[in-house]
Structure prediction request, 328 residues.
Amino acid sequence: MNLKNIIIAAVMGAMLIGFNGCSLLKKRVEKKENVKYTLSGNGKTSIHIENINGRINVSNSNDTTGIIKIDAEIVADVKHNEQDKQIENVKINIDSTGDVIKIETEINNSSSGMFRKSNNAEVNYDIKIPANMRVYTETVNGTTTITRISGDVKAETVNGKVNIFNCQGKVDVEGVNGSILCNVDSMTAGINISIVNGDVKIGGLKDVDADVNASTVHGRVKFKNLTFTDVNSEKRTLSGILGKGGNPIRVESTNGSISLDASKILPKKDDSFEFKIDFDDIEGPSIDIENDTEKEEKDATGDKRTDTGKNTEKDLPKAPKNADSTKK
Prediction:
């Protein structure tokens, strides 16, 4: 082999080694970091959480000392050679100077260079607070679960599920894309739910006294094992009084069904949101009255119908007691 061929082979070998090295450095792996915060709840009336990507779980701490515990899991895709470095583009800001504790998530996915790539960062919060605090959550992508809070609760989401379990104060939920599940005890200060694309389920209404109004544009309104007085139903709407009446329950959906149930409802682990529109305004019933004791049911026009595919009340699981029981 002459000198020219030796030089060419050496250059090609160096290029191949460099290419393989660059490929290894560009490969991304998932990295997790866990951070914990402990705050005093003395003099604090509410907590406000803003998140971009990731879940938010807020529940009653059962702590008589008023301690607030915040567990945050930061998840991001990092380069293979950066696994030992701290995730730098995620920042958690906590402001506890006033009577409102504010938690804000900052995620900077922008990067410089020719081959810019997002690291798909997210933050998952598990927060324990005194039961009497008010809760306000905002998220873009992720599931929100709030459990056993006696103060008022407000949750806003763009894309994601919202679960509200056994909260006795006023419940206010607004969403764009997702599903909403709300289980109540025998006592509620009122529920106001509005969703654009998604189904709404409210359970635990057996002994609740409330004035109910529910409506959807594309979908169905149905109730199970509930007795209403002063019922007024038109296409895809329902209004009536549960028990003695009193606190309002208002539910609005544009594209999705609304279900009201006497029993509590457990969320399905594989229950993923699916965008769908029901345009069957003429033939499809707007009110489905589900009653396990009767095979014949009535739609909104008063005509009897038979539905053999109903679940019985004994098949319905009990609601979870806390947010932890909803984890996968």
